[in-house]
Amino acid sequence: MVTDAGTPAISDPGEVLAARCMEEGIPVTSLPGACALITALTLSGKSARRFCFEGFLPTDKKERRRILEVLASEERTIILYEAPHRLKATLKELQEALGDRELTLCRELTKKFEEALPTTLADALALYEETEPRGEYVLVLAGADPEKRRQEEEETWKERPLEEHMAYYEQQGMSRKEAMKKVAQDRGITKREVYAQLLED
User: Fold this and answer.
1) How far lies 85's CA from each of 7, 68, 173, 177, in Å?
2) Same domain, residue pair 80 and 140
3) C-alpha–C-alpha distance, residues 120 and 154, integer Å
4) Is 10 part of a structural domain of the chain?
5) Over 70: is that where the pLDDT of 14 sits?
6) Could you tell me if 115 and 189 lie in one domain?
7) CA proximity to 51, closest of 120, 135, 143
8) Which of 60, 94, 103, 176 has its CA 20 to 30 A from that of 125?
9) Segment 120-157, tens digit of pLDDT
10) Are residues 191 and 174 in the same domain?
11) CATH code where residue 76 lies
């Protein structure tokens, strides 16, 4: 299989051919061509040590919502493809699901009008309210900040009554002692503090 449009099997049907060849015992080798996801990642300025590639988000609304929920807690750099006519809607969905993340917006990679724009989801949305998207896009998004996520989770747990928090783990089969340890971790406090608060209640 030869193509002049990037690496076969990345967001195209080449993977079907490779899988079928393997099923039939036909040796498969690969000599990659230009690959938009790797090109975008390497020029994005985002962490390339760990990343996940989602390709195009699903068109099915339920599955799309599920993927966005998963991506909201993804700590690795996230790479997505998007067509120009769907870009604005996708940027809006990403901002709603992930918050205002840092983003490098890449388009027309390896071509005459190549562009890599460091921005944020909010600023990208504002830009495309005034400018019509053109070309094929690769979105390179910063992963979730683990410390920020931990703080948000702590705040969420702190809003729940302590006994309800304990019950959550005890209903999963944990002992009272194990549940206290988990509750302390969730709330960012010591087991002693959990014990003292339970006695007060």
Assistant:
1) 23, 19, 50, 55
2) yes
3) 26
4) no
5) yes
6) no
7) 143
8) 60
9) 999 999 999 999 999 999 999 999 988 777 777 767 77
10) yes
11) 3.30.950.10
